[in-house]
Amino acid sequence: MSQPNAVRSLQETHLNRARASLRQAISWYGYLRKSGQLSSKPEFAGLVKPEIETLTATLNKLDSNVVRIAAFGLVSRGKSAVLNSLLGEKILQTGPLNGVTQWPRSVRWKPGGKVLVELIDTPGLDEIEGESRAQMARDVARQADLILFVVSGDITRTEYQGLLELRKAQKPLILVFNKVDLYPEIDRKAIYNNLKQLGAGNLHNKPLLPDEIVMIAAEPAPIEVRIEYPDGNISYEWETLPPQVDELKQTILNILNREGRSLLALNALIQARDAEATIAEKTVDFRQQEAEDIIWKFTKYKALAVGLNPVPVLDIIGGAITDLALIRSLAKLYGLPMTSYEATNLLKTIFSSSGGLLLGEIGSNLMLVLNNTTGVIIPGDNPLNITVSGLLAKLTGGIAQAGIAGYGSYMIGKAAQVYLEKGCTWGQLGANTVIQEILSQVDKNTIIYRLREEFRGKIEDV
């Protein structure tokens, strides 16, 4: 499994960036535990424990350099036989009865090079009944780095639905046309061409490429052999042929050699990103009332400061400082990392995405500032009335400014909640940032490149 130095170096870079992203996330949640933010709320610590364990397990998988390849298909399509043929020995149980595989089973395979492969056998998709069994299939697909979808002829309606479900995992998939030895050459080619069109599911707008579909015979049917002896006697015996899986094995090796570590990195980052997003979502829900109290507290502070401030120009500056303090207070409450620089960028993002509402706050304040600062007492018969009128105008303007400023601060706080829920993806080592880096660097001949739109579809824009 030799590979050019440039390709190997790029894949190692992807792997190292993914490791750094995961370690940063794990270290942050470790800090929260040590600082008491998790331990002070044991019910919350238990709530996010599964996701934190997922982050740790994902990093361990990266460090062990294990690529997971899961085989899916209907019963009697030969999934176990396909994996046994790759292993070179019959480890997984096979048989003439439907449903020999009752639960996912995994075995290790080392085809060459440094990458270790874990082959996962799964029950037939048409055996999966009920939400618990369906969830099992989704979990295996989510954890896999590469999927083998095994068929043994034209795709049935049930197979096509199963294929569409697996495509939702947005993982590289090889369509394996097994038992080709049972078909004449002309039928085999016709089925192959049909599979090229249907095998992409509804996530591709073009046929499968050569390394996305292969034809094999994992367990060829025995053939009858005529034996003629020297004495003229003739007998017939059934002979078992060796598996015909070289094309599949070579396709897998090519993918591992070309992009195996990048696949590991991407799938680890997607799992980590999903885990962190779930932690953030649970955190926001758990601390909803506390967050609401903080938002209202800063709303009152800002309204009071703007209303009583005698220097109108400082209203906007003071308001911005209050909004930054609000964002950082919410981040601290949620246990999410937030520097002053990141808080400033978030405030800019909120202003730009909220458009007219927050810009209206600034515009209204500026108008009121101008009105208040341009009031002039005109000499006349009753200057006292004019002065009182001016003071009333200033007072009315101040109250209006305070109301607008308070409302703007409240809206910023609510918007910040939405952004903070996705805050784990920010920064140089944020999961989404590293995913985008990898997608922008992969070669056009890789499966990852052809799936880049699906991968990007899983990146939540902040």
The count of β-strands is: 8
Order of helices and strands: HHEHEEHEHEHEEEHHHHHHHHH
Q: Which parts are unreliable, with pLDDT below 50 for 5 consecutive residues or more?
A: 95-100, 354-358, 374-378
Strand content: 5-15%
As a whole number of angstroms, the C-alpha radius of gyration is 32 Å
Structural class: alpha/beta
Shape: elongated
- Tell me about the biggest sheet? 6 strands, mixed
Q: How many helix segments?
A: 15
Q: How far apart, in Å, are the first and last alpha carbons?
A: 40 Å
Q: What topology, given as strand order, has the largest sheet?
A: 2-3-1-4-5-6
Task: Characterize the structure shown.
With about 450 residues, this protein is of the alpha/beta class. About 60% of the residues lie in helices and about 10% in strands. Helix 1 runs antiparallel to helix 2, helix 8 runs antiparallel to helix 12 and helix 10 (about 340-355) crosses helix 12 (about 385-420). The radius of gyration is 32 Å and the shape is elongated. Mean pLDDT is about 75; it is low at about 95-100, about 355-360 and about 375-380.
